[in-house]
């Protein structure tokens, strides 16, 4: 009787590992030579039969205990299969929750075919702004389709780990406040929601020349498209 709990935990670990493999191999479409749907069915069916048979043989429980164990394992299997089947919807829910809790967070949506769209909201200033991740650091950026390059303020450049003091501010750039100079740099990754690109060249504006970092066309131009719908801008990967 004491071995049963350990055995059940082992089976649960195998089931969780199988689910992880399915998620990791989602783009490939197959796991160990089986289509992912077939692998999921074989995994859950095989483990369920193994657990039930081992439990009956080892402990010889009463009919009520057998029924209860079957119900528990059916619930676990169905919950994990449901989570895998609705993985895209769950990702969308998580993205919506994050967008609601963290101001400026873009809303990412992935459809059943793996196509990604990201929605950016217009702020009170009348511009589209979003919380980007540049080199895995959060940076509030304004989408500027008139800027050929992504431009960071000195403060944001320092926040993502650039050595600002070592930069050479010698590149002339035009801003709303006139002509100024900026320094060339590089971002390993720039991500807006689930859409990421990199490495990409960027500019760092000289101190005091820029009030907010700009997301330019060197990122926007890599998208398959984008359009404005009222107070929302939709980016398509």
TrEMBL record:
Chain segments annotated as coiled-coil in the UniProt record: none
InterPro entries assigned to the protein according to its UniProt record, in alphabetical order: Aspartic_peptidase_AS, Clan_AA_Asp_peptidase_C, Peptidase_aspartic_dom_sf, Retropepsin-like_bacterial
Signal sequence region: none
Pfam families reported in the protein's UniProt record: Asp_protease_2 (PF13650)
GO annotation, biological process: proteolysis
GO molecular function: peptidase activity
Transmembrane stretches, start-end: 7-24, 39-58, 70-86
Keywords: Hydrolase, Membrane, Protease, Transmembrane, Transmembrane helix
Family annotation (NCBIfam families): clan_AA_DTGA (TIGR02281)
Protein name: TIGR02281 family clan AA aspartic protease
Natural source organism: Tianweitania aestuarii
């Amino acid at each position: 009787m004491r071995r049963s709990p350990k055995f059940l935990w082992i089976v649960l670990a195998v089931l969780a590992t199988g689910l992880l493999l399915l998620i990791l191999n989602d783009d490939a479409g197959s796991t160990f030579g089986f289509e992912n749907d077939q692998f999921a069915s074989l995994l859950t069916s095989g483990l369920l039969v193994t657990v039930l048979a081992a439990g009956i043989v080892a402990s010889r429980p009463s009919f009520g205990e057998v029924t209860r164990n079957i119900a528990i394992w059916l619930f676990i299997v169905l919950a994990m299969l449901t989570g895998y089947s609705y993985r895209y919807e769950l990702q969308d829910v998580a993205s919506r929750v994050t967008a609601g809790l963290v101001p400026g967070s873009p809303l990412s949506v992935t459809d059943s075919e793996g196509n990604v769209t990201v929605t950016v909201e217009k702020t009170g200033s009348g511009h589209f702004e979003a919380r980007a991740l540049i080199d895995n650091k959060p940076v509030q950026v304004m989408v500027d389709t008139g800027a050929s390059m992504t431009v960071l303020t000195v403060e944001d450049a320092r926040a993502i780990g650039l050595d600002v003091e070592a930069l050479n501010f010698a590149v002339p750039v035009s801003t709303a406040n006139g002509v100024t100079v900026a320094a060339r740099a590089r971002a390993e990754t720039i991500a807006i929601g689930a859409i990421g690109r990199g490495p990409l060249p960027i500019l760092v504006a000289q101190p005091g020349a820029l009030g907010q970092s700009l997301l330019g066309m060197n990122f926007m131009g890599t998208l398959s498209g984008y359009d404005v719908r009222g107070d929302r801008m939709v980016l398509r990967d």
